[in-house]
């Protein structure tokens, strides 16, 4: 789901074959091949920009396009997946044995998805169709 054309094709296929879209669960996670290879200070802007386009912009686009179908139907529901790290940022002290890093754009993208879903819910939730946000993530003291 890394391009608007693939999203449009999926929506067209679904409507043509099933006649409607009852819900959208948006858990897609497209990213570049070099995802996770850079520390903040080494992250090329083009890498940042492409991952924001692939992940955050795709959420906006698919939600908007599916909303148009749901508007015509008069019903539907959208669920977007964020992450706890879109709110608090990564804390690697709870991953002591991991030894890795997380792309800086991850927190920014997930924070964007969280806030986009909030405003989407405010604008359309009660009068048209509900939207929800799910935020998986490991919290201090929680099992792996």
Overview of this protein structure:
This protein has 144 residues and is mainly alpha-helical. 49% of the residues lie in helices and 9% in strands. A three-stranded parallel beta sheet has the order 1-2-3, covered by helices on one side. Helix 1 packs parallel to helix 2 (45-73) and helix 2 (45-73) runs parallel beside helix 4. The chain is elongated and about 50 Å long.
Order of helices and strands: HEHEHHE
The counted number of beta strands is: 3
Shape: elongated
Q: What Rg is obtained from the alpha carbons, in whole angstroms?
A: 17 Å
Spans of at least 5 consecutive residues with low confidence: 138-144
Class per helix and strand makeup? mainly alpha
Our count of helices gives: 4
User: How are the strands of the largest sheet arranged?
Assistant: 1-2-3
Largest sheet: 3 strands, parallel
Distance between the termini: 29 Å
Mean pLDDT: 82
């Amino acid at each position: 789901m890394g391009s608007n054309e693939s999203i449009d094709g999926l929506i067209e296929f679904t409507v043509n074959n099933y006649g409607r879209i009852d819900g959208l669960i948006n858990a897609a996670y497209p990213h570049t091949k070099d995802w996770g290879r850079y520390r903040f200070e080494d992250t090329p802007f083009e890498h940042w920009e492409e991952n924001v386009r692939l992940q955050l912009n795709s959420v906006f686009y698919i939600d908007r396009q599916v909303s148009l179908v749901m508007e015509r139907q008069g019903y539907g529901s959208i669920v977007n997946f964020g992450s706890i790290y879109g709110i608090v940022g990564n804390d690697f002290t709870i991953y002591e044995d991991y030894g890795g890093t997380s792309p800086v754009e991850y927190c920014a993208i997930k924070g964007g998805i969280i806030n986009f879903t909030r405003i989407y819910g405010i604008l359309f939730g009660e009068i048209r169709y509900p939207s929800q946000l799910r935020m998986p993530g490991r919290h201090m003291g929680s099992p792996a």
